[in-house]
Specification:
Elements: H1 3-46, H2 54-75, H3 84-92, H4 94-128, H5 146-156, E1 159-162, E2 166-169, H6 171-194, H7 206-217
Antiparallel strand pairs: 1-2
Helix pairs in contact: 1-2, 1-6, 2-6, 3-4, 4-6
Length: 218
């Protein structure tokens, strides 16, 4: 194995670990969402005092859950799609099926890249609206007190939610979208370059397929 192949393999392993870590964070967000919704149900039914802002919390949490867990779905080849045609070809012409799988992964990489290219300016605009590190166009000048300046900056951010109930900056959600889709783009790129997806093995027993996938990632 050449130095270039070793570098690609190590980068692929790092990306896989990042995807697993992002999936774990998304799972924690899911647990928090479940807890918030249960608190709202109990507070609404028992105390007649619903949790204010639960709709905004659900919207924000769903964005984080989807785009933090999406890379791991790509990593383990569980993204929703139809591989029936590739499986049929893979039984007789595995080389052609692998080539087609690489082409499909390359196209997926391109589309993910286009999403990142579209979302990045929106993230930059949303983050820039807060003026964390630059003088604001309106509002009080920085006082030198970190916490006060941070709260003032958050008040300037482009936000979603309902004023007086719950407001949250848009940029963390857009950052999660950019991060998750960019990681998916990189994973698809590695799949296209290395041919990690093997369509002719789709009909294998799932436990065998997962074992072989783990050996390839190790």
């Amino acid at each position: 194995m050449g130095a270039g192949e070793q570098l690609i393999r190590r980068a692929h392993i790092v990306l896989n670990r990042i995807a697993v870590g992002a999936n774990a964070v998304g799972t924690l967000v899911l647990f928090v969402l479940v807890a918030v919704m249960n608190v709202d149900v109990v507070a609404r039914g028992v105390f007649n005092a619903p949790f204010r802002g639960v709709v905004e919390v659900v919207i924000f949490s769903m964005i984080l859950i989807v785009f933090l867990q999406l890379p791991d779905v790509v990593r383990v080849d569980r993204l929703t799609r139809s591989d029936g045609f590739l499986a049929v070809i893979g039984e007789k012409r595995p080389d052609i099926a692998r080539l087609m799988a690489r082409i499909i992964d390359a196209i997926a990489c391109i589309f993910m890249g286009l999403i990142v290219w579209t979302m990045w300016p929106e993230f930059v605009e949303a983050f820039g609206s807060c003026h964390y590190f630059t003088p604001p166009d309106f509002g009080p000048d920085p006082s030198g007190n970190f916490w006060q300046d941070f709260n003032d900056a958050n008040a300037r951010c482009d936000y979603f939610g309902t004023p007086g109930i719950l407001k949250a900056p848009w940029w963390p959600a857009r950052l999660a979208i950019v991060f998750g889709v960019a990681l998916c783009c990189a994973l698809f790129a590695f799949k296209a370059l290395t041919g990690a997806r093997q369509p002719e093995r789709i009909h294998l027993d799932p436990s065998v397929a997962e074992s072989e996938a783990g050996e390839r990632d190790a």
